Request: fold
Amino acid sequence: MPRTSAHTLYLSAPAAIELVRRQGVAACIAGIAENIRADFRRWPAFDKCARVGTHGEHGVIELMPVSDAQRYSFKYVTGHPGNHRVGRPTVMAFGVLADMATGTPELLSELTLTTALRTAATSLVAAQLLARPGSRTMALIGNGAQSEFQALAFQHGLGIAELRLFDVDPRATAKLVANLRGSGLKLAVCASAAEAVRGADVVTTITADKARATIVKPDMVEPGMHLNAVGGDCPGKTELHPDVLRRAKVFVEYAPQTRVEGDIQQLPPDFAVTELWQVLTGQAAGRDSREQVTVFDSVGFALEDFSALRFVRDTALALGLGQRIALIPDMADPRDLFGLLRRPVARQAEPAAALA
Reply:
């Protein structure tokens, strides 16, 4: 059998930034959303499990694996709410996409920026299924690192024209307003979460504090609202009052994970939820009426990273971005690992375009 190169496509953070700049944020979100829809429709084809988390005093480090018969992926991701105080992102991530037939890692990629894109893409997929047609106003509570991506996803993918903004830190809201200047969105800065939610068609909560919070309370919820609850994503961290969940129809990504990490961790284990893939495949209904309150209890699931990594790989290759690196030793005789120590050291990474 002919020997094939084990070179891995490596997409660094600067290369990922260049990819998004060249494609555009809205186009990247739309492309990842398209992959998410396609992959969720193949839900039974994937070997799935809840992510594995190691929790410490200051945050959590998690591994998120998933695979089908052709490809395997995992994401290494951190969640440290206090990181901004030491000049680091609250979420940091990288991921791998590998060939199931040989185990060869095909792609090693940053996923910090890409996670924000895929989270926004997942929110958009859910809202397109669950929000009332004609939704135009969104409350955005929590104006930190991922907020702009959510805003642009809903503007370009759902038709949101007005954002009502609130964060406990006014500097976060000022940053968001500055970044969205020129986007065409109408921005209203609010003095409280209750003010922001009032009259909104969609409510997106994307806060960072690892605490059992009740950012949205029952008296704030109006008939027909769609709540996109993104920030509650680990044990002991919530954003919605449990009575908000009890009066709503609740949708999740992967119930075994969401029951531990999502807002529904506050409710009994038999609380009824619908997995998003069931709506995408027509096995379950989405919104039942214009007056119904819907909740997408989003915690982030490994299949979404699989979808995002596929998008990143295909787009990077099309644009000639990234490098090919010898992450795995290239061996003349695969059984002679020790023989590598007798050979000259291989040259450093090559541009992706040179070896694609």
User: Anything to note?
Assistant: The longest helix spans residues 112-130. Residues 8-114+303-355 form a domain with the ornithine cyclodeaminase, domain 1 fold (CATH 3.30.1780.10). Residues 245 and 295 are 7 Å apart (CA to CA). The chain has a mean pLDDT of 93.
